[in-house]
Amino acid sequence: MKTYLVTGGAGFIGSNFILYMLKKYQEEINIINVDCLTYAGNLENLKEVEHRKNYKFLKVDVCDKKAILNIFQTYDIDRVIHFAAESHVDRSIRNPEVFVNTNVLGTLNLLNAAKLAWETEDGFKPGKKYLQVSTDEVYGALEGEEGYFYETTPLDPHSPYSASKTSADLMVKSYVDTFHFPANITRCSNNYGPYQFPEKLIPLMINNALNGKKLPVYGTGKNVRDWLYVEDHCKAIDLVAEKGRVGEVYNVGGHNEKKNIEIVTMIIDTLLEMLSAKDPRRKLISHDLITYVEDRKGHDFRYAIAPDKIKAELGWEPETPFSEGIKRTIAWYLEHMEWMERITKGEYQKYYEKMYRM
Ligand code: NAD
Ligand code: TYD
Known about the structure:
By secondary structure, the chain is an alpha/beta fold. The protein contains twelve helices and 14 strands. It has a seven-stranded parallel sheet with strand order 3-2-1-4-7-8-12, sandwiched between helices. Strands 9-11-13 form a three-stranded mixed sheet. Strands 5-6 form a two-stranded antiparallel sheet. Helix 1 crosses helix 7, helix 4 runs parallel beside helix 5 and helix 8 packs across helix 10. The radius of gyration is 20 Å and the shape is globular. The structure holds nicotinamide-adenine-dinucleotide and thymidine-5'-diphosphate.
């Protein structure tokens, strides 16, 4: 029975991953979720599994050396799936320091603890794996409409967020190169789906539209992101953790490039389609809510992932077409309005006012 140490499991992708894994493997695996519960961490996401005997939550900061060492001494960890991070580009532009602490030093701390627990006289205990959950943003930006990021594309991050994720990837690479540490790195494009915090494009636009608030589109709205349904990302992570060749990097993406303005338009249209004629929110929603605002500083123009390697080596392919995934996502938010209301009270209001001034 394998024991997984999942960091950042109370966040968007981490909680989807835990729910997916416990559904898929049932009682066959143990999961220890290590999360310090920043503004982005929400244990409510994991309510349906919190009673399970093979799931345990530990409120621990990944930068806490003693606590992380202690976890590796207490449990025989087989897999580390490292999600915990500061994850929002806009916040990194305002306050980069916490990004370096969590994303870089937190990663180094986990690497050291796993190395210490797993090393033997002539290498590492068999069957162990560390997986660094990274991002396509480490490759920088594609300047035109053509071309893709491959695993061989030079690293060229622009934002403090992507610079911190790149630094973390390089620490993982250094442990692979120096110690033959059993790690993989996955680099995924933009995720969307249930439980995403409404500072990111899709849930922010859904929430604003439902409240009749302006929809702030940065710059021209023509920047392109490559969207993947979160469960498809979770499947890729599971596959790489099991079958990925040690030391390799795998890009994960679904060839689903969309301009930001297309996404916002689609959200408005889908909401109008889904809400019943009697729903009072229908009157609040229209294309007039779209408001072009000042561009993000250093705004990367286009991201597009080539997932050829993970497809050829491991047979992974995205399963959820965007047209279906976006409907499923919007339906989820409509069914979980209280979840949204709870997390957009208090601190979030202050963040929103400071960030958008509208
Ligand atoms: P998120 O912001 O929703 O969640 C991050 C989680 O990490 C939260 O639960 C938070 O409490 C926790 N955390 C933060 N600092 C911590 C610390 N010091 N110690 C312990 N826990 C801490 O992020 P997400 O969108 O779920 O992203 C998860 C990972 O996937 C990140 O590493 C991110 O870089 C990567 N990623 C995200 C996307 C995306 O589109 N969201 C795409 C590719 C890669
Ligand atoms: P985001 O969800 O923050 O992800 P990332 O910056 O990591 O790709 O943003 C996705 C795109 O949407 C990005 O080009 C910035 C843009 N955007 C807006 O136009 N308005 C917004 O309010 C937000 C949050 C993002």
